[in-house]
């Protein structure tokens, strides 16, 4: 990491950050990331929350705001004088076992279907097979969400914030912190009609996000590649179309709560299996490993 004020590896002026002790530098880096991310995304979404723009701008602004974590990562990398190119190249390792790619794509639908069966059984609900999305829509949805509908967030959450915090914190603690910020980041969208969060119960959603953050951390640290959690995140949204009691049931407290509980059980199992330090069978990824 560069010290003093000068030109970083990408030829930009850097700020003096070496006055920060090694024990607290991860907090400094994470703070810049969070501030940049929220400023960008909330600035755009505020236009929707307060009705400053017409309803036709809803989808474009939601999608643009979704790049907030990536923007936060880029801003922080620039301000700390780290190479964006090196960071991206190190994160996007693709020579991995095919089982990781398969797991990332298939696990979200499995969790959705499993939670819907539990929901129907426990709450005496009915199956709504006629409301399920066509199977051909899943790969299309996966491709769209990978690019602009949610998966792209992982460039910031797991690709930058996770390794930044893991410089000084355990993988589990970093997961919880990022999960909390991740949930807070989404809050404006609960008040935007037409967003994925509109009508979703907030508390179960928060539990689901925190649990998902742990699962994504495991995938990231286990593979050392951002592509795997990116694919997993991209798979979550289209997977919701296969909640066997119907998508509307998934927007109820019992429905979403059941899904969140299932993901939480998976997260706890991973924590017990691998422990909180690395949350994987290999050493946790640190930002210094990537830059």
Report on this model:
There is one protein chain. The chain is globular. The chain has 13 helices and no strands. It has a domain at 94-290. With 291 residues, it is an all-alpha fold. The model is unreliable at 1-19 (pLDDT under 50). The protein starts with 24 loop residues before the first helix and ends with a helix. The relative contact order is 0.16.
Quickly describe the structure:
It contains 13 helices and no strands. With 291 residues, it is mostly helical.
Order of helices and strands: HHHHHHHHHHHHH
Biggest pleated-sheet summary: none
How far is it from the N-terminal to the C-terminal residue, by CA?
A: 9 Å
Which structural category fits the helices and strands? mainly alpha
Q: How many helical stretches?
A: 13
Number of strands: 0
* Helicity level: 55-70%
Rg, please?
Answer: 19 Å
How large is the share of residues in beta strands?
Answer: under 5%
Pick out the low-confidence regions: 1-19
* Overall pLDDT confidence: 93
Q: Name the overall outline.
A: globular
Q: Which characteristics define this entry?
A:
globular, 13 helices, mainly alpha, disordered N terminus, 291 residues, 0% strand
List the helices and strands and how they pair.
Blueprint: H1 25-49, H2 58-65, H3 68-79, H4 84-91, H5 98-122, H6 137-147, H7 157-165, H8 171-186, H9 202-223, H10 227-239, H11 247-250, H12 253-274, H13 287-290
Helix pairs in contact: 1-2, 1-3, 5-10, 5-12, 6-10, 7-8, 8-9, 9-10, 9-12
GO molecular function, one term: metallopeptidase activity
Protein name: CPBP family intramembrane metalloprotease
Transmembrane segments: 27-49, 61-80, 100-120, 132-149, 169-191, 203-220, 256-274
């Amino acid at each position: 990491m560069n010290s003093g004020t000068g030109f970083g590896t990408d030829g930009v002026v850097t700020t003096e950050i070496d006055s920060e002790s090694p024990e607290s530098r991860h907090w400094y880096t994470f703070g810049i990331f969070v501030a940049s991310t929220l400023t960008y995304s909330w600035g755009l979404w505020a236009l929707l929350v307060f009705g400053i723009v017409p309803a036709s701008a809803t989808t474009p602004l939601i999608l643009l705001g979704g790049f907030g974590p990536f923007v936060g990562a880029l801003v922080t990398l620039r301000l700390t004088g780290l190479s964006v190119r090196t960071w991206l190249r190190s994160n996007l390792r693709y020579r991995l076992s095919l089982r990781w790619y398969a797991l990332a794509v298939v696990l979200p639908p499995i969790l959705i279907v499993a939670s819907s069966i539990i929901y129907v059984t426990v709450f005496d609900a009915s199956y709504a097979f006629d409301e399920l999305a066509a199977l051909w829509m899943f790969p299309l949805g996966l491709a769209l969400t990978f690019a602009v509908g949610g998966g792209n967030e992982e460039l910031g959450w797991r690709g930058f914030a996770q390794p930044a915090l893991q410089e000084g914190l355990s993988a589990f603690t970093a997961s919880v912190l990022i999960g909390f910020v991740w949930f807070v980041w989404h809050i404006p969208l609960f008040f935007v009609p037409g967003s994925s969060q509109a009508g979703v119960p907030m508390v179960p959603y928060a539990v689901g996000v925190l649990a998902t953050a742990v699962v994504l951390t495991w995938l990231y640290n286990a593979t050392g590649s951002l592509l795997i959690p990116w694919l997993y995140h991209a798979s979550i949204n289209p997977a919701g179309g296969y909640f066997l009691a119907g998508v509307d049931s998934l927007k109820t407290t019992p429905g979403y709560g059941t899904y969140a509980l299932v993901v939480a059980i998976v997260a706890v199992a991973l924590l017990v299996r691998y422990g909180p330090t690395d949350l994987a069978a290999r050493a946790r990824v640190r930002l210094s490993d990537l830059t």
